[in-house]
Amino acid sequence: MRPDPTPHPHPRTHPHPGPHPRPHRVVVLALDGLLPFELGIPHRIFGRPRGADGRKLYEVVTCSVRPPGPVETDADFAIDVAHGPEALATADTVVVPASYELGPVFERGELTPELAAALARIRPGTRLASICTGVYVLAAAGYLDGRPATTHWADAERLQRLFPEVRVDPDVLFIDDGDVLTSAGVAAGIDLCLHIVRRDHGTAVANEVARRTVVPPHRDGGQAQYIERPVPDPQQSGTAAARAWALDRLHEPIQLRDMAARESMSVRTFTRRFREEVGVSPGQWLTRQRVERARHLLESSGLSVDQVARDAGFGTAQSMRQHLQSALGVTPTAYRRTFRPDPGTPTDQRGSNGRTDGVRT
Question: Which residue of 181, 248, 303, 329 is 20 to 30 Å from 123, comparing CA positions?
Fold first, then answer.
């Protein structure tokens, strides 16, 4: 009962005839037992971005696997959904939020006939995304065979056991595998949707959405920082001051011992505390902050690649090229061309074909 599992590159835009391209259509699949918070994430994030001319960049539609009508939630209310499964055939991106009533999908990794028929309406080339346990739907449909994916850390072991062909990474907040993206639980759906906006329209647009939503545009680390552990001694200091100090000096060489000194810790204690708080090592965190600084400068400034490399703290263009290639799958020149093809083109009108596996920011 699976639709065609063959992965397809997702479309960048689907313009309609006329002077303006139509908004990218995001269709959110509402399943019984859904979590209202997660259902609302795509509407909140994708409903905000606008182009330089004020037009909405996305159109968000919610649909059910049944004809229009009520869909049960895990709360004490139902949601009246105005669209049936035929809406999936109109999607440029399909988002599957979590549900607590996946039945055979969660228990045996099998789609119900109703869900299989709905997913079969999705056009080849449509981008797919899941939030939390919505990944079980994509896995049961065969879209994740041989591909990396993530879900809530508490469900990762079960996901791997049920779908051994999926490369499950339980540590990351989300994974971008090109045309299929998956996120960890609950609020990680915000991280994923912001990443999609950033990938489609650049850092400036995504940051504006984050500001209006009152969330950070990036979160440090992965899920490791949220897994239950013994409560640390309240007398122990953290590493926030060292991180703030480093962010003000990304263009300078930063030594681990200098960061540790800001917190009056030994390097060993600081490294352990940093990883507990952030989920990655200080070196990994610094590299990611420098990649984000480089992305911002490439998008928003006319600085040369050499100057961007120096200002972001990579030192040389070659070092920056290696790090961007590893993190984003593109060179600095290609990245700039995507978002800033010429000085007269607004950065928020461009898209990106970037692919990022195991994203933790």
Answer: 329
